Amino acid sequence: xxxxxxxxxxxxxLGEVHVVTARGADDEAELIKRIGRARVAINIRxxxxxxxxxxxxxxxxxxxxxxxTGTDNIDLEAAGRRGITVCNTPGVNAFxxxxxxxxxxxxxxxxxxxxxxxxxxxxxxREMLTQCLGxxxxxxxxxxxxARVITLAKALGMEVLAWSARGDEGHxxxxxxxxxxxxxxxxxxxxxxxxxxxxxxxxxxxxRREFALMKKSAILVNTGRGALVEREALLDALxxxxxxxxxxxxxxxxxxxxxxxxxxxxxxxxxxxxxxxxPEVIRDGLLRAVANVENFLKGAPTDVVVAPVK
Length: 310
Fold this sequence. Notes:
By secondary structure, this protein is an alpha/beta fold.
């Protein structure tokens, strides 16, 4: 995505640029080899693991500019302690991801993929489908993505219950949703959509306990991070009919292995962590990631997630 882009050309004006497109950055030694003498690293994909060991070995590294919002692949505490600034590009992919989340809701509820497949096999399926009008959507996370999902869901005629990680009920109301406690949302929701940042507090946000609270007719949509949901609990909930179905764009291990059990589940719709992969998002996000580098080099960093500990 970066190689040969407008962002690449802009970055070249800042100094020597080395672009690596092959996978392998999840290996500490390989990542160290790639960025060993760099002052700035632009991180495009979350499989690169920026550990304390990487920071200790890459003594020139002063900044990581992330394309996207998630920083769960970076040891933020170690970055700050070792004097490394971390910036991201919040909101750039928000509308695209929100559209994808609603698309998954509609496609799963309407059983579109299975119906299309059956029709191509000569069938004429006439089963009942799920409409969104009048249904309750539970939104966890009310940042830019969650806020846009609320707007789209309201346009479909849904009642929206929302939970803010910051506990900001006024913000939730300003979005047109009704603030509610986590368990109350899970009990009431026909659809649940996850838009939380992955942190130690949100890891395993949904476990067996939470799935036991949900309606058996409920549909889960996750475009946040796979680890927001306890993996075995999700698989069991789908296998045993504790929830009806799921639409997933994110997974515990990416890409999925051919023998991953989620691939065998008929009540799951999958997409390969590409909710924000549109030409507009790629263009604008990469340019903003480079702009963050420019501002850092000027001494006025923007979109800062972590600043060096003083």
